[in-house]
């Protein structure tokens, strides 16, 4: 028997659905916040190592974004992600 999902988990899943299906474009700093909060909320800390300069630079920005939120709990990262969606994506 699966445990019941919390209200936070349900809200996070809905926020992710909105973010992943929007046609809106965001500035790089906002995209990095989405990225970092999502990765922290889902415990996905893997950053793919790229070979060319442009993608290495992007990876460095992603690593920096993750470093800045390293002390954030998984639950707080979900809340921050939901706040970003509510701020930037209105349906």
Describe the structure.
There is one protein chain. The radius of gyration is 14 Å and the shape is globular. It is built from four helices and no strands. It starts with 6 loop residues before the first helix and ends with a helix. Helix content is 66%, strand content 0%. The longest helix is centred in the middle third of the chain and has 16 residues, at 53-68. The protein has a single domain (25-88), classed as Acyl-CoA Binding Protein (Up-down Bundle), CATH 1.20.80.10. The model has no long low-confidence stretch (mean pLDDT 85). The protein has 91 residues and is an all-alpha fold.
CATH class: Mainly Alpha
Helix-strand makeup class: mainly alpha
Determine the CATH topology: Acyl-CoA Binding Protein
| Largest beta-sheet details | none
Question: What CATH architecture label applies?
Answer: Up-down Bundle
Q: How many structural domains in the coordinates?
A: 1
The number of helices is 4
Uncertain spans, ≥5 residues at pLDDT below 50? none
Annotation keywords:
91 residues; 4 helices; Acyl-CoA Binding Protein; mainly alpha
């Amino acid at each position: 028997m699966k445990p019941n999902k919390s209200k936070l988990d349900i809200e996070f899943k809905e926020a992710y659905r909105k973010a992943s299906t929007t046609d809106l474009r965001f500035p790089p700093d906002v995209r990095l916040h989405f990225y970092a909060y999502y990765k922290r909320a889902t415990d996905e800390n893997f950053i793919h190592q790229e070979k060319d300069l442009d993608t290495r630079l992007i990876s460095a920005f992603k690593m920096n974004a993750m470093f800045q939120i390293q002390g954030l709990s998984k639950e707080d990262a979900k809340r921050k992600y939901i706040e970003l969606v509510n701020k930037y994506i209105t349906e």
